[in-house]
Amino acid sequence: VTPYYLDLTRLWKTPELLRAIGELILEDFEERKEVNAVCGAGYTGTPLATIVSQLLKRPLVIASENEIFGSFEPGAKVMIVDDVIATGNKANKIVKRVMLEGGQPYVYAVILDKGIGGSNKLTQMNVKFFSLFSLEELIAKAYELGVIGEEELRALREKQGRLF
To answer: Quick one: which of 91, 135, 149, 157 has the fewest CB in 10 Å?
Structure first.
């Protein structure tokens, strides 16, 4: 779907950075007090969800597309945490799993939104969506900082043309 792979699991190597990201999510998500439980979306969302759970002082549950580990009170407003959202297929399955277990998916929070439909799927399911960054913001910042040049910037935008 995209011409590159962003491995955000590398963040796990720096606990201070992972904690800072969790703090940023909670700082920017103003409705955090409404959350009754935190859910890690598979193995990619669990490390960050653990941090968010600790900072919020809310119970932690881990959900895969097929099962859930832990439990929450019926009707609990659940903040689902993941690293990236793309098409929303995984998010859709996680949201449904939380609902099957009696939770109310309140918000799906990610570090990065690739901007290829995932957030729209969640909105259609009446789940709030929150991301720290969009892919376009990340690409623009990489260019601004000199991490990528003008040719790379142009190539990325051409490959994702209809998205930007």
So the answer is: 149
